[in-house]
């Protein structure tokens, strides 16, 4: 798909496994949407991973006091991409922040490109990435059925919030986006 970079946000085991405290209940549906989009973007795909810092600083200390299970090294199994995405992850960006927009992702984006966001969780890392990229002047497209939230209410509420940022942020579906590509 020309004119775009597909950013697959945090499709990791910690969000996929039902017994994880951070499980996104609709992870499987979001993953199915991402898989449908991958062929259309070819090598214009960047996967991201959320990781715990080696030593939390500032407000992150309180965050990890609440979620001590997550204080594991980058090679811990919970931080791995789920098996279905490993073969497609030629470009992976790691960050200890919710938002993944920054110099690494910006370098992958051409000047006229749009950033197409998918992944988990809609109400955290996808939202944080979308807002930062929009603030940087990037056209952001969020694929609603290729994202999953902490729950259905949080997902829907966050989509309404992002929609209010139009035209900087635009919502679409997998089918609509593939139809645009034509």
| Global geometry | globular
Ranges where pLDDT stays below 50 over 5 or more residues in a row are none
Strand content: 15-25%
Mean pLDDT: 96
Structural category is alpha/beta
How far apart are the termini?
9 Å
Radius of gyration: 15 Å
Roughly how much helix do the residues carry, as a percent range? 25-40%
Q: Give, in order, the helices and strands.
A: EHHEHEHEHEHEH
Q: Care to count the β-strands?
A: 6
Q: Work out the helix count.
A: 7
Largest sheet: 6 strands, parallel
Query: Which strand order do you get reading across the main beta sheet?
Result: 3-2-1-4-5-6
Please characterize this protein's 3D structure.
By secondary structure, this protein is an alpha/beta fold. 36% of the residues lie in helices and 20% in strands. It contains seven helices and six strands, in the order βααβαβαβαβαβα. The protein has helices at residues 13-16, 27-41, 60-66, 103-108, 122-135, 152-163, 174-181, and strands at 4-9, 45-50, 92-95, 114-120, 139-148, 169-172. α3 (60-66) links the parallel β2 (45-50) and β3. α5 runs parallel beside α6 (152-163). The chain is globular. The termini are close together.
How would the blueprint of this fold be written?
Blueprint: E1 4-9, H1 13-16, H2 27-41, E2 45-50, H3 60-66, E3 92-95, H4 103-108, E4 114-120, H5 122-135, E5 139-148, H6 152-163, E6 169-172, H7 174-181
Parallel strand pairs: 1-2, 1-4, 2-3, 4-5, 5-6
């Amino acid at each position: 798909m020309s004119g775009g970079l597909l950013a697959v946000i945090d499709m990791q085991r910690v969000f996929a496994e039902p017994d994880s405290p951070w499980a996104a209940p609709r992870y499987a549906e979001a993953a199915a949407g991402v898989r449908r989009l991958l062929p259309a973007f070819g090598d214009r795909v960047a996967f991201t991973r959320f990781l715990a810092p080696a030593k939390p600083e500032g407000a992150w200390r309180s965050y990890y006091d609440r979620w001590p299970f997550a204080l594991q090294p980058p090679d811990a199994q919970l931080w791995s991409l789920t098996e279905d995405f490993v073969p497609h992850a030629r470009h992976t960006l790691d960050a200890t922040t919710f938002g993944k927009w920054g110099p690494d992702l910006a370098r992958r984006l051409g000047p006229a490109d749009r950033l197409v966001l998918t992944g988990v969780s809609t109400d955290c890392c996808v939202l944080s990435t979308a807002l930062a990229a929009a603030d940087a002047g990037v056209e952001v497209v969020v694929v609603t059925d290729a994202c999953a939230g902490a729950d259905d209410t949080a997902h829907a509420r966050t989509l309404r919030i992002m929609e209010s940022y139009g035209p900087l942020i635009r919502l679409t579906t997998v089918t609509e986006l593939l139809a645009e590509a034509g």
